[in-house]
């Protein structure tokens, strides 16, 4: 049995910002519009509306759960898992909704089963090596995972990150481009990677790019692992049924979601901050 199978535990999210009355009312209207779209069977429209609603009201367990359900229905399992985790953290079970945990475990089992065990082992070893700044070793481990399962995008992304950390900008660019060919173009990660490619293209001629500027994306919890936080520079421990694997979290990026448009370089007024998104460098699904 692959270590980590069994009940799925979520990475503890940051506490959500409480919405303003106007934001909550707007989120409620969007949820009502989503109900109408659901009656018509327009699932993509339902998802889009609920995505806006949870951005406006990130403290609502009901909206988080409904968003997770439609993400699952449109075959976006990893995103659905994140929302199920958020719904559980917001105590959706207090509303009498007890399906979230079972659905989360089912999705985790399904995702884990899609990846060959040898690829998972190589991937985990790469995370350990990356956390120890053994970038050449990590590059080799992620390459091995890619050779075993060429359709798994996360090892490609992680190899791009360690290549960039090691100053191998051209190699990182190629990996990021290959990653984009395997993921949906409208995924938030894909959009961020596209932006990073543009930035790296301007750095490609630099001999020693600054590794502290390497792309930082969200660590996607998955595959039935249990996550417990450790100090920022110490990384993140993934405690499994019989082993502990360390994933590097040496860098963090915070994105502020603001109610109104902010000029370039400007700051969102404190009263208009909807939520802050904390993002981490290494993927796992």
Give a quick rundown of the structure.
With 285 residues, the protein is mostly helical. It contains 10 helices and 5 strands; from the N terminus they run ααααααααααβββββ. The strands form 2 sheets. The protein has a 3-stranded antiparallel β-sheet. Strands 4-5 form a two-stranded antiparallel ribbon.
Find the CATH topology of one domain.
Serine Threonine Protein Phosphatase 5, Tetratricopeptide repeat
Low-confidence stretches: 1-5, 207-254, 278-285
Average pLDDT confidence is 75
Distance between the termini: 17 Å
User: Count of DSSP helices?
Assistant: 10
Main sheet? 3 strands, antiparallel
At CATH level 2, the architecture of one domain is Alpha Horseshoe
* Count of strand segments: 5
Overall shape: it is globular
* Fraction in beta strands: 5-15%
Classified by CATH, the class of one domain is Mainly Alpha
Task: Give the topology string: H per helix, E per strand.
Answer: HHHHHHHHHHEEEEE
**Rg result:** 19 Å
Helix content: 40-55%
**What order do the strands of the largest sheet run in, or round the barrel if closed?**
1-2-3
Class per helix and strand makeup: mainly alpha
Task: Give the CATH superfamily of one domain.
Answer: Tetratricopeptide repeat domain
